[in-house]
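To the wet lab folks,

You asked to see what we're planning to order before we commit. Fair enough. Below is the target structure as C-alpha cells, and below that is the sequence we designed to fit it. If anything looks off to you, flag it before the synthesis order goes out.
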C-alpha cells in the first residue's frame, strides 16, 4: 500500500525568468514570473496533489503558496514519476492579472462565473 508520507523528490529544469533585456516598455510587457518544467519522483506513492506540490515549490523558491501555479501534470506509465509545468509569480496580483480565469478557479483565487443555460 502506498504511504501518504513517503518522500517526494522535486527537480526543476528549463528554468526561464521572463526578463526583457530591452528598455522599451511599449514593445513587450513583463509577465513577472518564473516558469519551469517540474519533475516529481514519488516511488512509493500513486501521485502527489497539486496543493502539496504548490507548497513544496513555494518553499523551494522562497515564495508564498498564493504565487505558485502548477498545471499539466502527467504521470508516466507504471507510476513513480510525474512531469508538469510550474509558474511562480512575483506577486499574487501578477498571478491574478496574467493567469487564465479557469486556472484561477482551480487554485481557489477566483470563483466560477455561473451562466444561465440557453433555452432551446
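Sequence we intend to order:
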Amino acid at each position: 500500500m502506498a504511504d501518504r508520507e513517503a518522500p517526494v523528490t522535486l527537480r526543476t529544469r528549463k528554468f526561464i525568468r521572463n526578463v526583457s533585456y530591452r528598455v522599451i516598455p511599449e514593445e513587450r510587457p513583463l509577465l513577472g514570473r518564473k516558469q519551469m518544467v517540474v519533475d516529481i519522483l514519488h516511488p512509493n506513492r500513486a501521485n502527489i496533489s497539486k496543493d502539496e506540490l504548490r507548497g513544496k515549490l513555494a518553499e523551494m523558491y522562497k515564495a508564498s503558496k498564493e504565487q505558485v501555479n502548477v498545471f499539466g501534470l502527467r504521470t508516466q506509465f507504471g507510476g513513480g514519476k510525474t512531469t508538469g509545468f510550474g509558474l511562480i509569480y512575483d506577486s499574487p496580483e501578477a498571478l491574478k492579472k496574467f493567469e487564465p480565469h479557469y486556472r484561477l478557479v482551480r487554485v481557489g483565487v477566483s470563483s466560477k462565473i455561473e451562466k444561465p443555460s440557453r433555452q432551446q
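Structural context that might help your review: Residues 19-29 have pLDDT under 50 and may be disordered. Residues 89 and 95 are 6 Å apart (CA to CA).

Thanks,
Computational group
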